[in-house]
Amino acid sequence: MTREETLARLREITERVRELRDTTDIPALERTMQLVDMYCDIARWELGEITPWTR
Question: Which residue in 55, 54, 47 sits closest to 3, CA to CA?
Answer without folding.
Answer: 47
